[in-house]
Amino acid sequence: xxxxxxxxxxxxxxxxxDKSIKCEQNLxxxxxxxxxxxxKKFLKIMFSYNNKELIINETVPNRFSPKSPDxxxxxxHINSLELGDSAVYFCASSQEQGIRAEAFFGQxxxxxxx
Amino acid sequence: AQTxxxxxxxxxxxxxxxxxxxCTYDTSESDYYLFWYKQPPSRQMILVIRQEAYKQQNAxxxxxxxxxxxxxxxxxxxxxxxxxxxxxxxxCAYRRGGxxxxxxxxxxxxxxIQP
Lengths: 114, 115
What we know:
The complex is a heterodimer of chains A (114) and B (115).
Chain A: E1 4-7, E2 10-13, E3 19-25, E4 31-37, E5 43-50, E6 54-56, E7 64-67, E8 75-78, E9 87-94, E10 104-105, E11 109-113
Parallel strand pairs in A: 2-11
Antiparallel strand pairs in A: 1-3, 3-8, 4-5, 4-9, 5-6, 7-8, 9-10, 9-11
Chain B: E1 3-5, E2 10-14, E3 19-21, E4 24-26, E5 32-39, E6 46-52, E7 60-61, E8 64-69, E9 74-79, E10 88-96, E11 104-105, E12 109-114
Parallel strand pairs in B: 2-12
Antiparallel strand pairs in B: 1-4, 3-9, 5-6, 5-10, 7-8, 8-9, 10-11, 10-12
C-alpha cells in the first residue's frame, strides 16, 4: 500500500480554471503538508495542517486553499489558475511528536497551466 | 527564520568513489532535526538519512553518513562507494522540534555519477 498518495499525477489546464489535487495518507500521521517545487527544483512549504492548527506560508496567494475532510486527507484547491502556478506540488505527512520526525512524500503532481 | 544553504549546485564523482555534499543552516532553536532527501528523475522524494540535534553521534545508513557540527551549524552528507543509482538531486532539510511548520529545504545539489 502506498503511504502517501496524491492524484492526479499530471494535470494540464487552462488559465482561469479552478482545480483540485487530492492527497491521502495511511500512516496514521497527525500532520499533513503541501509543498511547491518550482522549475529550478526549489521546494517551499505552502501549508501545514493538523487537527489543532493550519499554518499558512504568508507568500501563498489566497487562491490556494487546503481542505481537510478528515485526518487522513488534505486536498489542495486552486482558484483562477495562472501561468505562474505551473510547478510540481507535493503532499507529505509526518508525526508531529515522537522520535521519527521525517516527512513522507507523495509522488508529486505536475501542474501545467496553459 | 531558519535558512538552509547548499553551496554546491552540482557535484560529479566517479563510480565507486566517495563524495561529500555540503549543507549549512541557521536557527535559533535548540530542538530540531536535519534530513537529507534524494530526488531521482522519477521525482519521488526519498529520505536518505536523519539526524536529531540532541544526538552528538553522527547518523549513518549503510553507505551514507553525515558529519554533524552543531556549533558550526553544518550538516554534510558523505556517500561512500558511489553507485550509478545514487545520481539524483539531494536536498538538505531542517525541521524545528515540535510544532507543525514543516521542512525548510536547501536549493539542492545535483549529483552526477561518472561510470
